[in-house]
Amino acid sequence: MQTHNLGYPRIGSNRELKKACEQYWAGKIEAAQLEQVAREIRSNHWQLQKDAGIDWIPVNDFSFYDQVLDTCLMTGAIPERYHPLIEKEHLKTIDLLFAMARGYQKNGYDLTAMEMTKWFDTNYHYIVPEFKKDQKFSFFNSKVTDQFIEAKKAGYNSKPVLTGPVTFLLLGKEKEEGFHRIDLLKNLLPVYFEVLEKLDASGAYYVQLDEPCLTLDLTQKEQQALVTAYTAMQQRFPNLKIILANYFDCFGANLSTALSLPVQVLHLDLVRCPSQLEDILAVPDFIRARTHLSLGIVDGRNIWKNNFKQSLSLIQKAQQKIGADRIWLAPSCSLLHTPCDLDLETDERHLTAEIKQWMAFAQQKLAEVASLKQIAADPETPASKTLLEANIRCIESRRSSALIHNQQVKQRVAAITEADARRNSSFTARKEKQQQEFRLPLFPTTTIGSFPQTKEIRAWRAQWKKQQLSDTEYDRLLKEAAQEAIRWQEEAGLDVLVHGEFERNDMVEYFGEQLAGFAFTQNGWVQSYGSRCVKPPVIYGDIYRPAPMTVEWSRYAQSLTRKWVKGMLTGPVTILQWSFVRDDQPRSVTGDQIALAIRDEVIDLEKAGIKIIQIDEPAIREGLPLRKENRREYLDWAVRAFRIAASGVQDATQIHTHMCYSEFNDIINNIADMDADVITIETSRSQMELLDAFATFAYPNDIGPGVYDIHSPRVPSKQEMVALIEKALHYIPAERLWVNPDCGLKTRGWKETKRALTEMVNAAKTLREKI
Ligand code: GLN
Ligand code: ZN
């Protein structure tokens, strides 16, 4: 039985890579220093994986930015706009890579960055490859062989990792009409041959090819592409042993294709899909083929300790059928999606010892893989027994802990009725009452919630956390900020005001900190994109709301003005989606618990006189399961969770929701089902095209399509916004249109915010006169 790892978090236990990259971008260190930091990170990570008892250690999982971008460089898939940087400017590869990832504004160039999007159903973003009809590929960058040789020289038993050719193509985008990117396989394969040849010549034994596209609904042609690619690679390099890695879901309808591929080792994600083990072990051809199975049993997407007993039962099942020789053990997917090291969590105020003992980060997960191998090899040795018993104790402690289980919460969830998830009246009836109540003009103007989180505000928060600023003082400063924001919004003539969210560090963390059942780490960082990391809260127990969370802020803001102030909450699905969640109950149950907590808050806001309440759900789209067959179930409970949160109020109370840019086409009926009175969405960059889905579906409620992009400091003109709203009028009648920016303004400065919003209010006024 062998152990291996699919990938290690490259950012470093203390985010060394993040810090070094940012220093390099700021011109504070040289390329050579950055390379040095990178070499140290790699060598530390190889060593710690070896020390943990991993037999085959991944190389080339390291990246300065993203593994898909690295694959673009490896295969020479470099969009034309960057060619002058190579040919004229002779940029170093590392600078070219950063130019592609972040754009390039220097020496008279103004090159946009490549697009970025979410990696399957994770919160990691990859760079989207750009393909042309006559796309040429050529071996351009030798990072994979260089790093393999680097590891080999240092004496590690290493295994190069590559994004597989089919997944690479499928993750890309056609940048012109008239072809499908999968047709490029024949041009691309020769580069993979060249890479494999070089690896072969450098002494590589195993090569891991990641093909998580196997979790998607693949067409016949795409499945055939896998067969073509892997047959060709095997024929050319009979001595190289290919590990084909699929993760994040079952093989589904691709199973027979996957099993037919001539590879040495097939990796399965048994955390997301434990049932596929039996399916595979029941295929006689597979048993005869002598393919090895890599059992991904340790969860690479979450932070909980592995349940050894459960894992061992899966291992034994496989062992009985195919023998230990054909079994590999591994985390379910690359550990890129977990924080590095639980041992760095030393502050009991963050994570109590009781909760900490239930958890494992990347480093601890590798030790688990090695322990499982040891126990599976011989469960009867004293060492195996000790390991197993210690694990059982932890699992048992978590199962029965009073910290986790709250009967009242469980009963409340069980007692939810359909009526709890439904407003009292239809939208039409509600709208009439709301109009009488609010008397808003046509094209009402509002914002999405946050105003600039200035350096000052962040400094206050940091001081307050260090107890250098008292609660009262911190409170006073934030109230002043809210007061100024309200004053300014009144002056600018906005119709529905917000308090500005100055008291919030992050839209999920802020609520998690006030809800029971959440814990926070000090150092549990996970790469989101490039040097950006997130530190998701940990949901460990039953969730409830011990006390109102936002009511005081909203009440205070409302007391300052005669205009309507909108209350601002994060929705249950987004809180769930951006946290590490419990693995001891379905996500839907945790979702319902959060929904009830938010519902309580909504009702309390209403009682405090806040009659317009926004429940943000930017993450509802990203929670969508990869395979179509699983989507219905998710959408049912996700939409219901939102409705539970939103439906405790009177007809005359107006519920808003907000979503950032996402493809709505395939879920527009579910969005409509959420039945928010008003939905604001990000649309300005798509020139309102997104509204097409809403119009086609005849989306019935009010919509606020974003009229300007908040990601850049650029101030849009009134005319521009008038034109956009006029475009929106082709899709949505004036009586149902709101006017607002694309998203919150927390990353912007006040200067551009004020100018842009003033133009926006004027745009709405101009339109009112025109109509
Ligand atoms: N209310 C939040 C804000 O304005 C919404 C953020 C988001 O959509 N991601 O910042
Ligand atoms: Zn948004």
UniProtKB/TrEMBL annotation:
One of its GO terms (biological process) is methylation. It holds the Pfam family Meth_synt_2. Zn(2+) binds at residues 658, 660, 682, 743. It catalyses: 5-methyltetrahydropteroyltri-L-glutamate + L-homocysteine = tetrahydropteroyltri-L-glutamate + L-methionine. The keyword Aminoacyl-tRNA synthetase does not apply. One of its GO terms (molecular function) is zinc ion binding. HAMAP family: Meth_synth. This is 5-methyltetrahydropteroyltriglutamate--homocysteine methyltransferase. It comes from Niabella ginsenosidivorans. The lineage of its organism: Bacteria, Pseudomonadati, Bacteroidota, Chitinophagia, Chitinophagales. The gene is metE.
